[in-house]
Specification:
3 domains, Diaminopimelate Epimerase, Chain A, domain 1, TPM_dom, alpha+beta, coiled coil, TPM domain-containing protein, signal, 17 helices, 7% strand, 639 residues
């Protein structure tokens, strides 16, 4: 829990030139800092002493002990929350502001205590004049030095606050309109049980609806394969409607989670719209569930489907060993981290196939005993498990292909960085050009040199290194933005777009597969980030030809969001408890994968809403339908 007294001033840069791709090989969770300067991103280099000197001067002169923390990313956290958590864990006091900077995500936050001697307007003024310009230029040391000097000047009374809160609100609007990309806000914590309850309801609605859509999508796929697209068209249309409503709901959730805080009234209205859209999506699917059952006529078709699933199961079992061998071959050439998003897939696939094998045997026994309802439920579960196993194995093959593509793209990426470095150095040497490009040049050159050295050393993670090369390139592009005409900037972006699309597509696909096959444990945050990543990737594709620079920014943002989604999802799955493929039994693997859902016999899935009476808890296979009907096979018997 955050300390109650922290949280007055949070100043965030979240759009424009200060947003670029994230490319981390590790997560940076909030933790206590013991020094005034903490550089986990190795961002300061030779200027660390200069930063420390400015911070020491501020403390000696004004008693303000500024803390600065540099990390590569905020581990999927909201930047303000990350900064507040770090400040709370560090037990920072009234006169101890904290500046947190994520150099790869290119986001930051300032956390200050309620009694800090500067007003919101003064804090905003320091940010605008002394911190943000340096950050936009990749001058990480300059941002900390600017903060120290700016706070000192403000406390000494040498800088006019400029008219209080009205000034910084107007300034924020001007900056947003002029492309500076700076959003400023200050707020105090307000405890509101009603608001928290609505937030919880919205989160649950997103999870339940996403599960219903994913299961229905799988079921429609089975129906198309069995009866053709024309017969399945009404259900495909219902699914498309539900998916559209869910996409809009996720978009609203993402807006609520962004760094700019909506007022309480707006926030409540957005949460209510999320709940409403999810309800509409579920209702549309529920309305078609009976017709879908008539189409599939599962009790009649059960023997045929059982035979088909058994055949598919038999074909997939040996593929697990094939995929393991392919992974081992990839691991011999590349770093283990290159396959991190799919590292457990063979184990998980084997677990789903074990469950499918057990369930197919039970279904056969149920059919022979004349228990058609029980057999249908078991056949459905086995069919879903086999389909998930296939998805898990295909994800490994796709990731290995992406890794090889990224490796092939490293040489041209480094050549592009070298060309931009030459241009930037020539500009810096031109006496007529007065801007200081040294920080950007040093940062980009250091990053590119490290990437090149890693490539020579071998055993690399090509996707991670490609992101690092993109990061260096983005820093230089920003430095040269003022001297390149629009056409040159667009051509430069066009050259980088293919690499950015590759990393984004790979990360999104791996994260989508992970969430889909582990959805029994994944909450709304990871799903929201993934939905937004998919939206941004689609936007990048749509704008690629006409607006390559905008497309590049969208692809980089998609990659960043997908990484955040993956980290959040893996954290939740790790906390799930015993699980398939890691010591968990096959039944638990099916629950983890969302193949079986917890429900009440005669009542539908857990969380099904009003009208769900008491009963015995059972695990049932999910079916086509919304929240009210997707657990209707529960009466077939427990697994």
């Amino acid at each position: 829990m955050l300390s109650a007294f922290r949280h007055v001033t949070r100043i965030l840069l979240i759009t424009g030139a200060f947003l670029t791709t994230a490319g981390t090989a590790h997560a940076e969770a909030p933790e206590a800092v013991t020094q005034t300067v903490t550089d986990r991103a190795t961002a300061l280099g030779s200027r660390a002493a200069e930063v420390q000197s400015a911070i020491d001067q501020l403390e000696r002169t004004h008693g303000i002990r500024l803390h600065v923390v540099y990390v590569r990313d905020f581990s999927g956290w909201n930047a303000t929350t990350w900064a507040d958590q770090t400040a709370a864990l560090s037990k920072l006091g009234r006169d101890d502001p904290l500046l947190a900077v994520a150099t790869v995500e290119r986001r930051y936050a300032v956390s200050a205590a309620a009694g800090f001697p500067l007003s919101d307007a003064q804090m905003a003024q320091v940010t605008n004049r002394d911190i943000v310009p340096a950050l936009q230029n990749g001058d990480w040391a300059g941002a900390a030095i600017g903060a120290a000097q700016g706070y000192g000047a403000a406390v000494a009374g040498t800088r006019d606050a400029g008219g209080g809160s009205a000034w910084w609100l107007a300034g924020a609007g001007v900056l947003a309109l002029t492309g500076g990309g700076v959003y400023l806000y200050a707020r105090r914590r307000r405890a509101s049980t009603a608001a928290e309850d609505l937030d919880t309801r919205a989160g649950q609605a997103l999870v339940h609806t996403d599960d219903a859509v994913k299961t229905s999508e799988q079921e429609v796929g089975f129906a198309v394969a069995q009866f053709g697209e024309e017969a399945a068209k009404p259900f495909a249309e219902a699914l498309a409607y539900a998916r559209g409503e869910l996409d809009q709901a996720f978009r609203l959730r993402q807006r609520l989670d962004d760094e700019v805080r909506e007022d309480a009234e707006t926030r409540r209205a957005m949460l209510e719209e999320i709940v409403r859209r999810c309800a509409d999506a579920n209702a549309r699917l529920d309305a078609e569930s009976e017709a879908f059952d008539r189409l599939r006529d599962l009790e009649k078709q059960a023997p045929q489907i059982l035979a088909e699933v058994r055949q598919a199961h038999a074909e997939l079992v040996p593929k697990v060993a094939e995929v393991r061998r392919a992974m081992a071959a990839t691991a011999e050439r590349f770093a283990d981290s290159a396959l991190t998003p799919v590292q457990d897939n063979p184990d998980e696939a084997a677990n789903r196939l074990e469950f499918a094998g057990q369930t197919l045997a039970k279904a056969q026994a149920s059919l022979e005993a004349g228990e058609s309802g029980r057999a249908v439920a078991q056949v459905l579960a086995a069919q879903s498990a086999v389909d998930q196993a296939r998805q898990l194995l295909e994800a490994v093959t796709r990731r290995a292909d992406d890794v090889r593509q990224a490796a092939a793209g490293l040489k041209p990426a480094l050549e592009a960085v070298a060309a931009n470095l030459s241009a930037a150095k020539a500009l810096a040497a031109d006496a007529a050009y007065t801007a200081d490009l040294a920080p950007q040049i040093a940062y980009a050159e250091s990053t590119a040199t490290q990437v090149a050295q890693d490539v020579v050393a071998g055993g690399i993670d090509p996707i991670a290194l490609l992101r690092r090369a993109e990061e260096a390139q983005a820093t230089l592009d920003q430095a040269l933005k003022g001297v390149r005409d629009k056409k040159a900037r667009q051509e430069q972006a066009r050259g980088l777009l293919g690499q950015a699309m590759l990393t984004a597509r790979s990360e999104i696909a791996a994260t989508r597969d992970f969430i889909t096959t582990n959805r029994g444990a994944v909450g709304s945050t990871a799903r929201t980030r993934l939905a937004e990543a998919e939206r941004m990737l689609a936007e990048a594709g749509a704008r690629a030809d006409a607006e390559p620079a905008a497309a590049l920014a969208a692809a980089q943002r998609a990659d960043q969001l997908a990484q955040e989604a993956g980290r959040a999802a893996r954290g939740e799955v790790s906390a799930f408890g015993p699980r398939g493929g890691r010591g968990g039994d096959a039944l638990m693997g099916a629950v983890l994968g969302g193949i079986l859902i917890d429900g009440m016999l005669g009542g539908g899935p857990r969380g099904g809403g009003a009208g769900q009476g008491p009963g015995r808890r059972a695990r049932t296979p999910g079916s086509f339908g919304g929240q009210a009907t997707r657990g209707r096979r529960g009466s077939g018997g427990a697994f």
